[in-house]
From TrEMBL:
InterPro entries: C2_domain_sf, Formin_homology_domain, Prot-tyrosine_phosphatase-like, Tensin_C2-dom. It comes from Triticum aestivum (Wheat). The lineage of its organism: Eukaryota, Viridiplantae, Streptophyta, Embryophyta, Tracheophyta. GO terms for molecular function: phosphoprotein phosphatase activity. Residues 200-337 form the C2 tensin-type domain. Keywords: Hydrolase, Protein phosphatase. This is C2 tensin-type domain-containing protein. The keyword Hydrolase applies.
Length: 355
């Protein structure tokens, strides 16, 4: 198997980690501190020189994950060596994942690049400081998409092990692996014979029901508050925004304790495509926030209009202790939304990314 041949190949350029055949990651992605401009330029120049020496007939494409809105630093430097750099974001509304259509764009671009007959094309993966979690997800997704490896959980775990856990935790308050696994399950459905990614259907996100109350205050209860991010429903607008927030009033922010059987938090907002849902604990004076859990999902894969969640399905703090008991259970309840005709036509239109 081609995975992690770093330890078996004699010729592996320094400062690169081989993930699978012709797929490498820059080792600066594992550094806690960013390099200075001159040091970074020398770092990249040294790697390029090795690549040109080891693989004189190869062509290289770089996938870069970063947080800027202009041309990235690595794009400026590697353009001098005629290397193509594809810049992608390194998070979506606070979650280290990308929208499903952008994930699809990445997977197809990489697959097409690596599959060109008669050429030795190579893929290099890079991220800016703090971008390792989304890079790890994309690597796992690519390995599964190309059937280099099987098993979503096993593949994600193996990629995550390339970085120390404390290194990842210093950039993220919440462990994103539950949402990563959910989207890896989406990725592996591409081989089922149906269209992928499927057209996302609009839903009304009615409410979130907590069947077990998390323990986030001194008395073992919480004051839950919802914040929902998603795609703007305006025709032709692909940007994301906050679609719903629980009103910050004592009427809407009631405290709930362990004695309650279930708690229903109303939302009633229209969602379509990729959604980030945050369930937050609000302090007694309504001025302090603490994220209890977060989930990211895509409406195209919601079965029976319900997204069921247990403790392993939520992005929560790395060490939640006893805040979420093992039998924790929650549900995101949805109902079908009517779709205006012009939105229906828009959903059927192909999407092109200029990256």
């Amino acid at each position: 198997m081609a995975l992690f041949r770093k330890f078996f190949l004699k010729k592996t350029p320094d400062r690169l980690l081989e993930i699978s055949e012709r797929v490498y990651v820059f080792d600066c992605c594992f550094a806690a501190e960013a390099m200075g401009e001159d040091e970074y330029r020398d770092y990249l120049s040294g790697i390029v020189a090795q690549l040109q020496d080891y693989f004189p007939d190869a062509s290289f494409m770089v996938s870069n994950f970063w947080s800027g809105d202009k041309r990235s630093r690595i794009s400026d430097i590697l353009s001098e060596y005629d290397m193509t750099v594809m810049d992608y974001p390194q998070q979506y509304e606070g979650c280290p994942l990308l929208q499903l259509e952008m994930i699809h764009h990445f997977l197809k671009s990489c697959e097409n690049w690596l599959s060109v007959e008669g050429q030795q094309n190579m893929l290099l993966m890079h991220c800016e400081r703090g971008g390792w979690p989304v890079l790890a997800f994309m690597l796992a997704g690519l390995l599964l998409y190309r059937k280099t490896y099987t098993g979503e959980h096993k593949t994600l775990e193996m990629v995550y092990k390339q970085a120390r856990r404390d290194f990842i935790q210093q950039f993220l308050k919440l462990n994103p692996q539950s949402s990563h696994l959910r989207y890896l399950h989406y990725v592996t459905r591409h081989g089922s014979g149906s269209e992928w990614p499927p057209v996302s259907r609009p839903l009304i996100l009615d409410s979130v029901v907590l069947h077990t109350v998390p323990r986030f205050d001194s008395e073992g209860g919480c004051r839950p508050y919802l914040r929902i991010h998603g795609q703007d429903s305006s025709p032709g607008n692909k940007s994301a925004k906050v679609l719903f927030e629980t009103p910050r009033t004592k009427k809407h922010l009631q405290r709930h304790g362990q004695a309650e059987v279930s708690v229903k938090i109303s939302a009633s907002c229209r969602v379509q495509g990729d959604v980030v849902l945050e369930c937050i604990h609000i302090g007694e004076k309504l001025d302090r926030e603490e994220t209890m859990f977060r989930v990211m999902f895509n409406t195209a894969f919601i079965q029976s209009n319900v997204l069921g969640l247990n403790r392993d399905d939520i992005d929560a703090a790395w060490n939640v202790n006893n805040q979420f008991p093992r039998d924790f259970r929650a549900e995101v309840l949805n109902s079908p939304a009517s779709m205006p005709f012009f939105n229906f036509l828009f959903c059927l239109s192909p999407v092109h990314y200029e990256i």
